[in-house]
Design a protein that fits this description.
This is UPF0301 protein HKD31_13450. Pfam families: DUF179 (PF02622). Belongs to the UPF0301 (AlgH) family. By secondary structure, the protein is an alpha+beta fold. Strands 1, 2, 3, 4, 5, 6, 7, 8 and 9 form a 9-stranded mixed sheet that branches. Strand 6 and strand 7 form a beta hairpin. The radius of gyration is 17 Å and the shape is globular.
Amino acid sequence: MKKTLDGRNDNLTDAALMELGLTGKLLVAAPALAETFFERTVIYLCAHSEQDGAMGLIVNKRLSQPGLDDLFAQLGIEPSPPERRIGVCMGGPVEHSRGFVLHSADWAGEGSLDVDGHTTLTASLDILREIAAGHGPRQAVMALGHAAWAPGQLEEEILRDSSWFIAPATDEIVFGTDHAKKWRQALVAIDFDPLLLSSSIGEA
């Protein structure tokens, strides 16, 4: 796939994007998103289709408040303190108060969505109760809010607005705790030198 410095994917078309299947892939912010909410973000795409558009979670914006213990207390989840903790991210600008847990596929409950056979999305309290009790999936991250695109909108942002790179998802990027490195790691995964972009979108 030919990529240019400004984020264009010159060999792609709308049809090619659909054939690639972006579900389970990462969207990596390109220079076109400098000084916007999505600057230097890495988004895991939980769903993408021609009919329904796309939905994803930002996985590299740590949310300091409320913390996991605060959320558990608000939701009445015990034990308190919890026997196990997971990271909490700002998932996106849509529905800030709604929580999602992105996790490994070794656990599933009612309402869980199998994303790609390796990663699962769950929005029920059951998984939080399991995690608080020291159980649940091997890997997990919680996100408040999400990012969403109408049908055709994401394709336009990728192909015509040059807003996003497409990168493969790895456990280290999706579930890792070093959020400051994830944007660079995602670019390296597609053989792109992050230093080439530093002058365009500034330093984190």
